[in-house]
Design goal:
Length: about 150
């Protein structure tokens, strides 16, 4: 991600090319006029290391979109559940921590989902930086969607 200004500079320097233009917007200088890009492709390979998403309560809830991973209830008043309980060897990992409503947490107690007869809505995974940065309805530019692997 970068500012429009930086993107235009990269285009002028021929270091990038436009993949998707921003609908009809143009920038003008004395000597040239450029369609404002929405998505650019850098011509040279850049060693881009995606930011590591810190494992914490807030990010787990963001990944799960504040939705209980057992019953599908949505809300801000959620807890975090260890899928495999901690004292049974369950670790603090993206794969073992899910958003859980208070009712389901009570119901599940200190059991595995199988023992409690509960099923996860989906397999918990480590999220990408973009999943945490934007939820699907907060992406600043619609044109970015196909490129964000959401
Ligand atoms: Zn629930």
């Amino acid at each position: 991600m970068c500012t429009v200004k930086r993107a235009v500079v990269l285009l002028i320097l021929n270091k990038a090319e436009t993949v998707v233009e921003r609908n009809g917007k143009r920038v003008r200088s004395q000597y040239l006029e450029i369609n404002v890009p929405s998505v650019i492709r850098i011509k040279r390979y850049i060693n881009f290391r995606p930011y590591n998403v810190p494992l914490n309560k807030r990010n787990i809830m963001k990944r799960d979109k504040y939705t209980c991973q057992y019953c599908g209830k949505k809300g801000k008043d959620m807890t975090i559940d260890h899928v495999i309980p901690k004292d049974r060897g369950g670790k603090d990992t993206w794969q073992n921590l899910v958003t859980c409503c208070k009712e389901c947490n009570m119901k599940k107690g200190n059991r595995t989902p199988r023992e409690a007869g509960m099923k996860l809505l989906r397999k918990p995974r480590k999220p990408t930086y973009f999943h945490i940065l934007f939820s699907e309805d907060e992406i600043p530019d619609e044109n970015w969607k196909p490129f964000l692997f959401l």
